Amino acid sequence: MNQERYLTFALTKGRLADKTLGLLEQIGINCEEMHDKDTRKLIFVNEELKLKFFLSKGPDVPTYVEYGAADIGVVGKDTIMEEGRRAFEVLDLGFGKCRMCVCGPASARELLEHHEMIRVASKYPRIAKDYFHNQRFQTVDIIKLNGSVELGPIVGLADVIVDIVETGSTLRENGLEVLEEICPLSARMIVNQVSMRMENERIRKIIGELKELVR
Length: 215
Ligand code: PRP
Fold this sequence. Notes:
Blueprint: E1 7-12, H1 15-26, E2 43-46, E3 51-56, H2 61-66, E4 72-76, H3 77-83, E5 88-92, E6 98-104, H4 109-113, E7 119-122, H5 125-135, E8 141-144, H6 151-155, E9 160-165, H7 169-173, E10 177-185, E11 187-191, H8 193-198, H9 200-214
Parallel strand pairs: 1-3, 1-4, 7-8, 7-9
Antiparallel strand pairs: 2-3, 4-11, 5-11, 6-9, 6-10
Bound molecules: 1-O-pyrophosphono-5-O-phosphono-alpha-D-ribofuranose (PRP).
1-O-pyrophosphono-5-O-phosphono-alpha-D-ribofuranose binds next to strand 9 and helix 7.
């Protein structure tokens, strides 16, 4: 086994990284340095196992992986779909489960049924565009927002939103509902295409061990 080269993991900052580190620990991969919440360090090394880890914003994870700056990434399926980067999606880690949905006030159902020219607000313009144009064959106007997307229909910016629904409480508290489900989401492991060939044995072993844990 080639233990010379470091294998680098890019993890999505926050809950996904915490859960991923928990899983990795269960297969004997740990990185003590990362548990220090106050550290400003950006990259962490496990010298013994020749592994490196860094945390980044979700949308940057597929970018690091496509360019080979990270061999392996852990990121939400929503981000993988939105970023459209080249990488192998190798494993559904089974956590961070939620759904990508079209949501809005109940009154918007009619607009969808009649394929009206509507305004759709989303943090995920690519997913929204793909869904409406290629799956529903409905021409819509997509408006990109950066957060608190539920505001869109409430303040009259958009008719509906395309957003993540986890518990549904944000929708309920704002008088909105799920109108259509686009797809289920969860945390996925992605691998750089060249790394998959060059480090096949090491990467396969990690995937295999994690697969046993999450199934
Ligand atoms: C996400 C998503 C919804 C909410 C859904 O937002 O965009 O707003 O969580 O969760 P729920 O169904 O459990 O209520 P996030 O908290 O990431 O913040 P944001 O709105 O600023 O993007």
